[in-house]
Design goal:
Chain lengths: 156, 894, 453
Amino acid sequence: MLNILKDETERIERLFEKYPSRRSAMLPLLWMVQEKTGWVSQEAMEEVAEILAVTPAEVYEVVSFYTMFQQRPTGKTHIALCDTLACAICGTHEIAAYLEEKYGIEVKKVTKDGRFSLELVECIGACSMAPALLANEDLHGNLTPESLDQLIASCP
Amino acid sequence: MTRPLPAQPAAGTGATSGYPQRAAGIANALDGVPESEILTVTLNGKTVKARKGETIMEVCHRENVFVPHYCWHPALSIAGNCRLCLVDVEKAPKPQIACQTQVAPNMVINTENAKAKENQQWMMEFLLVNHPLDCPICDRGGECQLQRYSMEYGTTHTRMADQKRKFIKPQADPLIDIERNRCIMCTRCVRFTDEIGGEHVMGVFDRGNGNYIGTFGQGPVSNIFSGNVIDLCPVGCLTNKKYRFKARPWELKQTQSTCDHCASGCKVTSWTRNEKLYRCTPPSRKNHDSFTINEDTEEFICNQGRFASDYGFSAARLDEAKIIIADRLTPTSFQNALDRAAKDLQAVVAAHGPSSVAITVSPRTTNEEALAIRALANSVLKTPNLEWRYGFASDAAADAVSLALKHATGSFEQFPDVIVVVNGQLEQQVPVTAMLIQEHARRHGSKLVLLGHHHSAYLAAHATKQFYNQPGRTSVVVEALAKAVAGDEASKGELSTILNQTDAEVSALIALLQSAERGLVVEGLMDFEGAMIAAEVPATINFTKALGAEKWGYLPCVTQRNAVGLCRLGVESKGLKPSELLPAIKSGKIKALVAFGADSLTAFGDYASVAPVLDQLPVFVIADYFDTPLTRVATTVFPLTTNLERTGTFADIEGNLALLNQSVEPQGDSRSALEIAAGLGKSLGSDAVPATLESAWAAFRKEVAPASTLPIRGLELEGSTNSADFVVVDNKSQARNRSTSYNPGSYRKDGLNLRGTLPSEALAVPHASVELETGEKGFVLLWGPSVLSKGHVENQSPIAETLLPKPFLEIQPQDALEMGLEKDQFVILHIGDRRAKAAIKYSRGTAPGCVYLTSGGYGAFDAASLGGPAVVTLEPLNEKAPNQGETLVPQEQH
Amino acid sequence: MSITELERVLLPNIEKNETEWLSAYKAQGGYEVARKALGMTCEEMIQIVKDSGLRGRGGAGFPTGMKWSFLNKKDSPRYLCINADESEPGTCKDRPLMEQRPHTLLEGIICSCLALEVQSAYIYIRGEYYKAAKILNKAIEEAYEAGFLGENIFGVQGKKVDIVVHRGGGAYVCGEETALLTSLEGYRGYPKLKPPFPAVAGLYGKPTIINNVETIINIPFILKNGAEWFKKWVHEKTTGLRLYSVSGHVKRPGVYELPPTVTLKQLIFDICGGIRNDHELKWVIPGGSSVPWLLPHQIDVPLSHEGVAAAGSMLGSSAVMVMDHTVCPVWALANLSHFYQHESCGQCTPCREGTAWMFKIVQRIEDGHGTMADLDALYSIAGEGKPGSGMISGKSICALGDAAAWPVGSAIAQFRNEFEEHVRLGYCPYKNKRYWMANGRFVNEQFHPHKHH
């Protein structure tokens, strides 16, 4: 019985047309769930399992493999701060410290007001713009304290 | 290093029987493989032959070269992830895994040189990096592949100086203990539950070094075969909760025996010490490694056999004979009880004639016991009322079962290429037979056709063709198919109407059936069928005959363990019909009842309803394992020896004999039914009852295989734990049992099995007249037997409650969606004015418009009393079966 | 040589930093090559690609034409997968290509599909590239509307090409071609056992070619201008202009399109303006995080596969990471080792256990708790930074194990003294010298431990 994806049957059908195997719709469906709810809950995994006619365990196998699928609720703006070499040598940790000290945004936590959550991630493919982060879907590079302040201010 | 392997498969078990090449598996002999398929390779300096497409591992197996491995298992798909079987292949830039690399002409393979050894040592070091050093408290100690290989292939010291990985320990499965810190991620358990268990309930979660095995929501591994992951686990990650911290394998005595829970007839090993059963497993391989189970063998058993074989250790166990003295059941000596029972019976016979005596026999009775009891009935008491077939919906159904077993010719010996399953919930009726069928379909390329009004959901996933018909129409379908196969065009049209299929589909089905080289018709005989089964059985037998008796076998499936043996020995009443027993007791027509095993009596209902009837009997002699309300109303009580305490033979549905082998001393004064029957005979002044196991066995051999020229080895059966001495024991076909050292073929040829023959003339098929009007919202309710259902014996296992599945109502997803029913949602079933509650389970096996209730059997909803399929309406409740697991915890690592 | 003197093929649009939508692309002759390709035979096209010497731009540098010729054309359907899972640390060239030249990429895919007789192509794009995925989807929509995709493309009966953008979920290993396929099939991104290779049994068990974005985007240019044109820029067996992603402590990090004759030294000191704050160059990682490290005296080599190999490293994905003298090599190695142990799929033993074990040891040395025995252990696990050496390389299912081991081996070889110093001192000598913030942003004296988790 669908709940989260109940209004998406048409989109799901179109998705199935793209692949010779229904199972291939696994990642797109999980993205669909995450777009709608911000994270992939246990209930959502059961729903996806039902749509794909697989067991929930199979969905959880996939969800837990890919790090971008959030298994806990996130803040309104989820910040993924790159912590791999190119960014790390250009100030990742200073940014993390700045965010924590100035805005109280801590790694792996959601702020009390629910506005932000922060996680340190591996390379996000913006090495020449280091240090860089993803705020929800948007990439921000060449970060400075000023650009960070602007970013934070612009977030809902 | 070369080491002896498990006994090699007998020559010809593979290629000569047309057995197809498999993805993984133990190498077959090369006999009969065409020269063009053979190539030569060099293995450790020796030139050997190999078949094209074979893996290095398979060649090594055949050549007795041992390559250590964890993830590879012959029954499972190839994962190639443990990397322990890396071997050196000349000219290859990297070491190659033996389990997956196919041999090529003139390949030079070295499994023992410095490079190979270095790799083995490195992989062992990696596997131990995070493995806790807790062998002293680990249950796998002594039979652990990690211990063994690290002694043989590893180093003696560790270079790991950091903290080891630690996981949270879930406690969701009541039977299987998971200790993830010990896991080496070979994924055997995951592949087993997916491929053989039939449901992907176990998985690998998280990623990289933090990945771990588990179930969704940390729920239980809810599968009838789940216990096998314990044996498959090469380390101490998955262990038996019931065996935890109890013993070390080397302290235990291993007895090769057979399971007595269903007629699949699995071979098992009982692990005992101090007259206690510690665990029950598939056969251990003494000649390979004293303490290894399931290493490279393909034998699996179901949870009932594994966990519920301990019923003899129930607190309710009887251990002394009792007789009535001054209106009270009083303990007495065995001989006193025999004399007293004999005196009572003699008095009844003298006063009311032999027909006033009835004898009931439990289906757990061995052939030798049955032979003795039959002698007691026929020659001593001279009563025609000797019966085992209780628990079927009607007398017609019981007769149909007898008819089916009489004409059962099928077996898996020939690796059937087409299997037709007519009805049945086989994974619950005869679990391991269902497993064999799905193994054939999944791995060996056999085509699987499901017919009838109920299909096994477990098999449906592997079916080539699956056609439903309405309940009551199965015999019509099968008869029409028989005609159509013979070329009758009109029947084809009839079939497409009944099956609601296109003509092309029907033609394809018929072509498939006609194409079979070695076919097998399997019929699941189900409780509810009542009158229908009387038509279905002869129709299916005729169908098999029409397909060709030389190519096709007929294999009816019953749950009762020794049904085949008891039918062959004629333990079927010539007097009272099964259903007439209780009325005859009530009316006083039956004055004396001798019950060998109370499980036959509980088929009439629960203790509360049966005991008062039996209480009316002037003479009630009962031999049973347990002190129950039934034994309390008896006049003489004999304690009966259980599955572990006696020796004898059982026949399985394929007619193969298996040895029930005594592994512990009988408790108290318990005796086998053979001793009791012989004792009664003697006390009644007759020598007609065979008094010893040897004489009973000899008589049985003479009766079932009079032409046999094999030496009668009689008592050599007793206590023989060496598989080479397993005279009559056969456990399924070579498909699962390829590594046993005896050759069952010679016994078969000698007639030493209870296989039947198809009738020479077509059988008459009674008209099946079951027309159910379900109306708008109604469903046809079906149900069937299950080895996991509650029962007189099963209930007494200390973990019976744990094994029992929740009452589920299986329904087609389409039907459920139309009703708006969700998975796990509770519904109330209304059957007339009766009600039952069950949780919804989507199933691909239930016919549209039908629902299937997992059998509760004794003590639960008594569906059997309905006598046949009934119309039910479903009332959805706003309530869901609780998720047995906890909430998902994304970060498993501490 | 200054940057303005260099010829550029792919970069002009990227420098404008705007997306080339269909109308603009058509105005400058877009999709003409695809139209032309419709009139060519498959063999012709494959031969041109072979002749051009084009090598895969994903990292392994396998000749593209040869890869194409392995495709088993007896089986169908066949698939083309575009590997846009650009995840090798230091590499950031495919993202701007997709964001700014989507139609060039689509044209490349159409041409490749025609050459390979493939009807469906999947672009497997890493999950983090939200914007690129959106742009590609929109471009694909435009191309369908214009009749360049779908049934009967460009009005030619029977010619069909479908392109689907498939987003990953955050897993470096999915850049491995067979892991990409498993992921696309909807499973955990586990690399498959080889053989069979994808060209025989790939996606859904069917013959499949997997090419990097930059590889495919070169195809229309090669078909248009010919193999000889592409070979204008050549150093030994490396042909054509390629994109170099430069990151780290240079004054002008960025993506540069250069011929393979340019030297690493020129790239760092001329094109990228040298080291920030005029610091000293400490070492260079020339081809993405997996490759062996090069010291300043080793960098005067052409940036071709052969040139970099001669210096003892690999060109890889031509991602150049530059470290100045403020960076502790042990710390940097711990960072990279953390990356690999985090990204190992966990399927096979050597990689699952080896990557985590190496990280634990390196981190411990960095924290000052290491011993000399640790160094030996590390060296024996990781090997000498060469294929097949050590306990992981060559033993794992895919090359991630190798990629994790090589930098460790080479770091120890190049900076053994510094590792030993950590052991001897019992702390990281760089701790108080930390000043990695580019151009003095985020001045913060406080030391933050390496990992917050």
